[in-house]
Write a structure and sequence with these properties.
Layout (H helix, E strand, L loop, with lengths): L1 H18 L4 H21 L7 H10 L11 H13 L3 H23 L3 H12 L7 H11 L1 H5 L3 H12 L11 H4 L6 H40 L13 H29 L2 H19 L11 H5 L1 H10 L4 H23 L16
Helix pairs in contact: 1-6, 1-16, 2-5, 5-7, 6-15, 6-16, 7-9, 11-12, 11-13, 12-13, 12-15, 13-15
Pfam families: EpsG
Organism: Flavobacterium pectinovorum
Protein name: EpsG family protein
């Protein structure tokens, strides 16, 4: 476990230096180095991370073209290509990792004022995408596609969604980002929508609890079967009420801070409004579906990833030095809490110890 917290500490140190005076050129250099180190971990790992066994089994069974299975077309063909021509699972991880970390790094460098800080947020929330599954590939395609919304290139944006859907069918939900990004709703309107979705979530959670395990279980089972696979189970050993509570703490905390600074940041960085719109949409989607099925929360994943851009902007436009230092410390403690929860949750044995191909 020490290994994971060491990475957190290193990223925190470089983030502090970046926020409080590191030159842009130096920041980019260290970001590339740190991203490359995480990339190495993504394919040198062995029997570490969620869904290792089912993915490994699927790869080993992909020894001929167009085998029938439950995985999406693009992911299945990718497995078959590597299995047939190279027959090496580490090489398979290397190729997928290369796609993920290239798109992820290119997007962060384009969108974020503090790329190393973005990497810290990414490590704290989803382990920097080191333990990727097929939805991770889809998510980075979608995250990268935000640039095409900014550039008003609809067909390029649509092509990225198509590529993402080859790896995970839920990617189609991101098509509404084209219009959400451009919204200019008043803060009070954004708050009302969040309040409605949160109220809906609480009411549904209580409804399922009152109906008992039978009714709630049937609904959950049918939806889970429809989107069948085990990845990103979001702590399915945890009750819906606990997940809703964690969601309130994680999301409303950030939403409240950013809403209070929205006008100030948007006046200087017009694109920030688009990032915040996407994060807001993720909150609404999350609370609207979490009580129906934990599996459906994956619809909000790419919207949630925009958090890695939002936090750096908040720090950049906290202009008072002492205020920025306090805000930095607050975010570090927030991220540390999220990181600790993610690492020591129901599936700690999947991450600790960190195993590699070297033993």
């Amino acid at each position: 476990m020490t290994f994971y917290f060491l990475i957190f500490a290193v990223l925190t140190f470089f983030s502090f230096v970046e926020v409080f005076g590191l030159k842009k050129k130096d920041s980019t250099f260290f970001f590339i180095i740190l991203s490359f180190l995480l990339f190495l971990l993504s394919f040198l790992r062995w029997e570490t991370g969620t869904d290792w066994e089912p993915y490994m089994n699927f790869f080993n069974s992909s020894d001929e073209w167009f085998i029938e299975g439950d995985f999406e077309w693009g992911f299945a063909r990718f497995n078959e290509f590597v299995k047939i021509y190279f027959d090496n699972y580490t090489f398979f991880l290397f190729l997928l990792g290369a796609i993920i970390f290239y798109l992820q790094s290119a997007a962060i460098l384009k969108f974020s004022p503090y790329p190393i800080l973005s990497l810290l947020v990414l490590w704290s929330t989803i382990f920097g995408n080191v333990f990727f599954v097929r939805q991770t590939v889809a998510t980075v395609f979608l995250f990268f596609s935000i640039r095409y919304i900014q550039e008003k290139k609809f067909w390029s944006f649509l092509s990225m969604i198509f590529l993402a859907m080859l790896f995970h069918r839920t990617s189609i939900v991101f098509i509404i980002a084209w219009w959400i990004y451009k919204l200019r709703l008043k803060p009070i309107t954004l708050i009302i929508y969040v309040a409605i979705s949160l109220s809906l979530s609480v009411l549904l959670a209580k409804l399922f609890e009152s109906l008992g395990e039978f009714a709630g279980g049937v609904v959950q089972q049918k939806i889970d079967l429809y989107l069948s696979d085990s990845e990103n189970s979001f702590g399915s050993k945890t009750s819906v009420a606990e997940i809703v509570a964690k969601g309130i703490i994680n999301k409303i905390f950030i939403f409240g801070i950013v809403t209070s600074m929205l006008g100030k940041i948007t006046n200087k960085e017009p694109e920030f409004r688009g990032y915040f719109n996407l994060y807001w949409a993720g909150i609404v989607i999350y609370f609207s579906v979490v009580s129906i099925s934990i599996v459906l929360v994956r619809f909000a994943l790419v919207y949630d990833m925009v958090l890695i851009i939002i936090i750096p902007f908040v720090l950049k436009y906290t202009e008072n030095l002492y205020g920025r230092f306090f805000m930095f410390l607050m975010f570090v403690f927030y991220l540390l809490a999220r990181f600790y929860t993610a690492l020591t949750g129901n599936y700690i044995e999947l991450f600790v110890p960190f195993r590699t191909i070297f033993g």
